[in-house]
Structure prediction request, 614 residues.
Amino acid sequence: MATFERQLALEMERWEARGLRRSVDREVAEGRVDFVSNDYLGLSRHPDLISAAQEALAIDGAGGRASRLLGGGGASHTRAEDAARDWLGAEAALLFPSGYQANLGVVSALVTRGDAVFSDARNHASIVDAARLSRARVYIHAHLDLDELDRQLASASGARRRLVVTEAIFSMDGDAPHLAELALLCERRDAWLVLDEAHSIGLSGPEGAGAWAALGRADDGPLVARILTGGKALGVGGALVVGSNALREQLVNRARSFVFTTAPPPALAAALAQSIEVARGADTERARVSELARGLAERLGLAAPAAAILPVVAGTPERALEWAAATAEVGLDVRAVRPPTVPDGASGLRVVLHAFNTEAECDELARALPPATERAQLVPASAPTDAHADALFVVGTDTDIGKTVVSAILLRAARRLGKAAYWKPVQTGTESGTGEGSDTHAVGELAEAAPHELLRPAWSFPLPASPHEAAADVGQAIDPTRVHEGLAGLTRTLEGARIVVELAGGLLVPYRLEPDVATQADWLATARVPHVLVARSGLGTLNHTLLTLEALRARHLEPRALFLVGDAHASNRATLVKLGGFEHVFELPWFDALTPACLDDWLDKNDLAPVFAR
Prediction:
């Protein structure tokens, strides 16, 4: 058996092979122009901050000595808290050793089991970890997607407390949530807001008081806490949580990352208090950062950033490292950001502008990078394309629950609207993909479809089993990439047609287990197409349906409708509407005789227009 150290070395070798390995030793960049640090206003070397730190060192010593509750800290800590409180016009503030600890402390002190936390998919790791450690139920919504957040808040109406946590300016993307709309949403859904102002404080709002201050609201509304990190625009370190007196008391008593940690050094607290005073008067520097950031964005053909952070996406880690090396060759310090700091496919450069940068330096940086047209060709679009906009997936909670009948109804409905087709990518239980005994044949009979409207499956296996097992039975393996490419080809060939796509069995049924696991849910998340969920109406539907819905929403997928198949069950329907937050629910009974006529009769009584909205 390999030694533990060898195991770790092998892990690092694999990490390096993917272009993801970091090294502190490699990060030294003496003499290069700073386009990487978060010292936006250049305050880290401000003489007033240095003098304040030196004075505190001489009076109070080097260390915090103990936790604040055991006599650590001192007058300089109180001065920093008072300065932050006054700056933001709040009741109170509390100093933490770092922004990471501040986020951990706030979230874990405010929510626990029975509560719900709502986090943007691009939130900082400290927020992600805080949500996980809180023991509350965690909902992740797509980046800046307030519609998905709204649906999540509605589905968690039974939680004791709902806490929305977001960055005011995102640390890697440089963009920002629409805070006014987010605040209104929180108020409407009875949720509370925690705002991490790490990259907005000092740069946004009057006197640099942050993004929330920039709104100019007369009250805080749903806002319960703002986190101001001291190691960015303030040029020092530590972090301050600003809010009400009640919030401070809660944190002092419940925030483990405050209670059980040594107080920050007095010199840090003193410099932080001085930094706030300097930052409040730094309007010229703030304007300079904004001017440089917007100017460089324009030269690079990028959208203007919310503040000082300008992401230049390269796509792959290797390309990001190449671009960073190119800037280093001309004396600039720009760093590559790679997974897990950013999502797969989003590797690139994180360019940071500062008040001390010059126009000439920005010009040099723009020349060192590939032109915008070349960069656009290198990086594939991460957003879903319109190529699949006319596909409608039929997703089931299980097998034998009526997906094929629902597919036939949807095909009949689609044909009333224009060109339509049906496709079951993977068919098991029959050697013929479209012949008698196949779901394609059954749908064709019920929908009275023409042959050209019934598309041949990508795979068809005789064994009536899960796709991965049926494929293995004949010595084959399903390649999800081929399924995805097949859908793209069909939507191009059948331009303008509505294609009903029926999945096999339940949502999480695997296509393959080796070399890596690939489920139907993974493909659905990749295709990003509209879909409906089919479930039984009777006993067992609550658990199966809600679990399937949870799996869909974990992938940022929202069904357009729920079809309940079987004898009507008013209580189950009402419960699913309340707990699942379904906007459209259709009930499909067991028909005495399953014929095209009875499907038409059902369609005449049920409006499926919302399902097919383009």
User: Anything to note?
Assistant: The radius of gyration is 28 Å. DSSP finds 23 helices and 23 strands in the chain. The mean pLDDT is 92.
